[in-house]
Known about the structure:
- With 339 residues, the chain is α/β, with parallel strands linked by helices.
- It has 12 helices and 12 strands.
- Strands 2-1-3-4-5-11 form a 6-stranded parallel beta sheet, with helices on both faces. Strands 7-6-8-9-10-12 form a 6-stranded mixed beta sheet, with helices on both faces.
- Helix 1 (5-12) packs across helix 3 (31-44), helix 5 runs parallel beside helix 12 (292-308) and helix 8 (159-172) packs parallel to helix 9 (192-206).
- The model has no long low-confidence stretch (mean pLDDT 91).
Amino acid sequence: MTASINDVARAAGVSASTVSRALRGRPGVSDEVRDQIKAVADRLGYTASRSASSLASGRTHTIGVLVPYVGRWFFGTVLDAAEHVFSGAGYDVLLYNLGSPEARKRFFTRMPARKRVDAVLSLLIPDEEESAALRSLGVPLASTVGDARPGFTVVGIDDRAGTQSAVRHLVNLGHRRIGMISGSSGPQHWTTPVQRRRAYLDVLADAGIEHDPALEADGDYTVEGGERAMTELLAASRPPTAVFAQSDEMAMGALRALRRHRLKVPDDVSVVGFDDHELADVIGLTTVAQPVAGQGAEAARLLLRQLDEPGTEQPGHVQMPIRLVLRETTAPPRPRGPQ
């Protein structure tokens, strides 16, 4: 027969409530007694009931995660790292895939996460009404995208500084015709493409380079979109000698388009990406490295800390480090090429 909590209590010579506190890591039990109870529980093969523990603690031991694009590399990497932290702490993940406007509207109208999760990790940027709906859940909230917002702990990077380092690198190499492949903000309220575009324009202005709208194209943050955008840039009356892509996946698409047009990288066109995708080193892509998995893990740890230490003040915004990684896709422009 399966051992019960009362069996463990009798064998350890303590009360059932003491066994419960010890095995759930709650205060009020000395380390010596806790170790003794764990040893007895292991010997008897006792496993605490998740439902009983939830009733006793008022917790579901579940973290809700809101994802806009579960199949894309960035979000998948963040999710995988966060889930690893949650799982290690004994929490399950309840995933809400809100990639379509219909799914997103349905979620925030019905709020199915209410009373089902202990905290929420949002990998999408909620508008003011959606933010208020999430705050109404009364649980800790964290995000890895967007700027600081009331009620959330946001773990992210300095998008402007990262972009500036990439575009300045191209300027310092001598490029004057610098294109950009970006992604649209669209219905997901992304701030990333807006911040990175502003930084791109700032660097051009600082360098005395006149902005040419024909050197911007939307790549939709996908490989296919990057290839399409690069093809569009090459059709300009004066094509770029260098391109900054707002993500490595778009940069990969740009490289494919350049290869298809029989142009050499970096001899004919230099390319810089953003992210340091796991394949960036394989293809020799110069890029801005950001700790994608690290952001997911840190956001998860901060959520768990809020659950374990509810009275402790939590940071509103945590900025992770970034760096420019120089590889083989950038070089000075050819003297005979368009400047």
